[in-house]
Design brief:
Helix content is 36%, strand content 20%. By secondary structure, the protein is α/β, with parallel strands linked by helices. The strands form 5 sheets. It has a 7-stranded parallel beta sheet, sandwiched between helices. A two-stranded parallel ribbon has the order 6-15. Strand 4, helix 3 and strand 5 form a beta-alpha-beta unit. It starts with a strand and ends with a helix.
């Protein structure tokens, strides 16, 4: 098999999980991030500042480019640097290369949706975010969609998994949330987030159609009360105090993964139960 090269810009938790999966399939994996020492040892590691033109221009060519950067702060300037300016710098560089990537994936977020009344949303739903995070994500999405490079946006819902155990810790400390009003939450296990990206890469490699936008969330939107009650039962804890869930109501929607499922992706962790059961088992 000819060597296939994937460049993961922002090779953090999800990028590393993706790279390890593709490396096992014979890919050459290049991981680029600000601190290259954090890239898995089996990858080719590159130190990268997406805001520095010299750093960006030194990146090697790749068949597949994955942009999976995380903003280092929840501030407008950090989001602009990471998503709007950073992605534009990377795309501008690769668009003018003699051998541009054959596929680009941008890891976006469900923050692009403003819906907050329990509505079902999918790839065709309106995106009119009222917060800077969603607005900047929308700008970045359009930058890729309008690029001459073939690319797809992957909107991830709330990521959980190893090292992302805040809800487990809250439940262990005896916290819950009110049952009413119901607040729907959406999540995806870290391994499924990487799995979706690998699935779309393989789909493109096989010549199958790949859409501009995908919504990646597990099979079962669930209320925050339901998730925390389940965790308390598994942890053998009786909830004794309530968290303020008002901030969560801004994201009260139900994400549909119908497009991904119709194209053949099957979730390793189809609901929070399988996913959190695995996380809890590994915490023992």
């Amino acid at each position: 098999m000819a060597s296939r090269t994937i460049l993961i810009v922002g090779c953090g938790d999800i990028g590393s999980a993706l790279g390890l999966q593709l490396q096992a399939q014979g890919y050459r994996v290049i991981g680029a991030r600000r601190d290259s020492r954090s890239v898995p040892a089996s990858f080719e590691a590159i130190q990268l500042d997406v805001g520095d033109n010299a750093s960006v221009s030194a990146l090697p060519d790749a068949d597949v480019l994955v942009y999976a950067i995380s903003a280092d702060k929840f501030e407008e300037s950090a989001y602009q640097s990471a998503y709007s300016q950073g992605l534009d710098n990377i795309l501008s560089e690769f668009e003018q290369r003699p051998q541009p990537p054959r596929q680009v994936l941008f890891v976006s977020s469900t923050s692009v949706y403003a819906q907050s009344s329990g509505e079902v949303v999918d790839e065709s739903s309106p995106t009119t975010p009222d917060r800077f995070s969603g607005q900047i994500m929308c700008q970045a999405e359009q930058r890729l969609i309008n690029s001459p490079l073939p690319g797809s946006v992957v909107r991830l819902s709330g990521i959980y998994g190893p090292g992302r155990e805040r809800l487990i810790n809250q439940a262990r400390d005896g916290y819950t949330v009110p049952q009413n009003p119901a607040v729907f939450t959406n999540r995806i296990h870290r391994d499924d987030a990487a799995g979706v990206l690998a699935f779309l890469i393989e789909r493109y490699q096989q010549g199958d159609a790949v859409d501009d936008i995908y919504l990646a969330s597990d099979d079962e939107p669930a209320t925050l009360y339901e998730v925390m009650t389940w965790l308390a039962q598994r942890l053998d804890v009786t909830p004794s105090q309530q968290l303020d869930a008002s901030a969560r109501r801004r994201s009260n929607k139900r994400c549909s993964n119908a497009r991904l499922k119709a194209q053949g992706y099957r979730f390793r962790y189809p609901s929070f139960r399988e996913g959190y059961a695995d996380v809890l088992e590994n915490l023992k």
